[in-house]
Write a structure and sequence with these properties.
Layout (H helix, E strand, L loop, with lengths): L1 E12 L2 E16 L16 E3 L6 E3 L6 E4 L5 E9 L3 E6 L4 E8 L22 E6 L4 E8 L3 E11 L9 E4 L2 H6 L11 H5 L8 H19 L4 H20 L6 H9 L3 H14 L1
Parallel strand pairs: 1-7
Antiparallel strand pairs: 1-2, 2-3, 2-4, 5-6, 6-11, 7-10, 8-11, 9-10, 9-12
Helix pairs in contact: 3-4, 4-6, 5-6
């Protein structure tokens, strides 16, 4: 692909970030899926590879860049972007990590006094998630077509066992991508499935409403992906967010989500929705 500007954000450790930037009249780039780095590659940004002989300079991260390392080894990366058109933004995760939950922020950060004329304040319509199963690295790439501001959050988890075999996945809706279940049928979600993380003081009406929305989401992600489905899934999670905030969680959210994610299909589905809403 062609671009004029590129920034690679490389998470080297659970709490450390290196950033590299380069510009040229025509940059040809790709993500290498099936080999390790060789002498022609730039090890600072591989598996992102460039046909041009680019001179990357290291730049400091801004105050809006945040990395949090959880006790279960998950990494939360959060960033607010403000970039011109023709810009590629790449995110590289540490070896053996892959994105688990991805989310665009509802409101992008725009510096005070910045002129908003001819500026987009919505995320790119599509972005790519890449995997290199040889080096066990994952990356995300955004390509901007015009001046834009957007915010992005991602939770990355260590990968146990086989690394994802996909070379890449094109993502239109990170929420739908997060909670779709790879074609596996999800049985109806019952009260007992969510009682684990609700204290006994939670009123029945809240629990029943949470159950109702979870089952509506289950039906939506079990059907073929459509634009209308994506809209409905987004609406349901927006309704779910304030309901979950009123629920007194029994114990640590991170511990609860881990125990659910290590369970069966239903538990995994619930954990992904909860993680997305709480991110």
């Amino acid at each position: 692909m062609f671009t004029k500007h590129v920034v690679i954000q490389k998470i080297t450790q659970p709490d450390n970030l290196l950033q590299y930037q380069a510009s040229a009249d025509a940059i040809i780039w790709s993500f290498e899926h099936r080999r390790s780095a060789n002498s022609r590659d730039n090890n600072d940004v591989f598996p992102f590879v460039f046909e041009n002989e680019l001179s990357f300079r290291q730049i400091r991260a801004g105050a809006e860049t945040k990395i949090v390392s959880r006790e279960n080894k998950e990494i939360i990366f959060s960033e607010d972007y403000g970039v011109p058109g023709g810009f590629v933004i790449g995110i590289l995760f540490p070896e053996n990590y892959a994105p688990f939950i991805m989310k665009f922020k509802e409101k992008p950060y725009i510096p005070s006094g910045y002129p908003r004329r001819n500026v987009t304040v919505s995320p790119p319509g599509q972005f790519q998630l890449y995997y290199n199963r040889i080096t066990r690295q994952a990356g995300i790439a955004f390509l901007t077509c015009g001046d834009t501001f957007f915010g992005f959050k991602v939770i990355a988890k260590p990968v146990d066992g086989e690394f994802p075999l996909n070379d890449y996945v094109s993502i239109n809706d990170p929420l739908e991508q997060t909670i779709r279940n790879n074609g596996e049928e999800i049985r109806p979600i019952l009260r007992g499935d969510i009682q684990t993380f609700c204290k006994e003081t939670v009123d029945n009406a809240s629990i029943e409403k949470i159950l109702e929305i979870l089952n509506e989401l289950r039906m939506l992600v079990s059907s073929a992906p459509t634009r209308q489905n994506s809209i409905e899934i987004s609406k349901k999670t927006q309704i779910l967010r304030p309901l979950l905030e009123t629920v007194n969680l029994s114990g640590s959210l991170t511990t609860m989500l881990d125990s659910y994610y290590n369970g069966g299909i239903v538990e995994k589905f619930i954990s992904k929705i909860m993680a997305y809403v709480s991110l």
